[in-house]
Amino acid sequence: MQAALEVTARHCGRELDQYGQCVAAKPESWQRDCHHLKMSIARCTSNHPIIRQIRQACAEPFEAFEECLRQNEAATGNCAEQVRRFLQCAEQVQPASPPAGVQARPLPAS
Prior knowledge:
Layout: H1 2-25, H2 30-33, H3 35-45, H4 49-57, H5 59-71, H6 80-92
Helix pairs in contact: 1-3, 5-6
Keywords: Disulfide bond
Protein name: Coiled-coil-helix-coiled-coil-helix domain containing 5
Domain CHCH: 58-91
């Protein structure tokens, strides 16, 4: 999970910041009013393999978390158990190994 968060923050930091600001500014209606920003994060991260792996491996707990958020728009703290289950799943996801025979080349010395 840490790797996925790092990838997202590194490559999609602007989108994450905008979404976070929107959610904080609209506690009663963030699901509706910030949806377009949530989608921009999804588009941004869709090219990163670790995030795709987490989405696939943890789809069920993530969907349960999203459903809880929809049902508890004004009280997202009620979804702590769903968050815990999703994070527990995501922590188990390991980055895929490169195909057999493919080796990373060291960077040339500067």
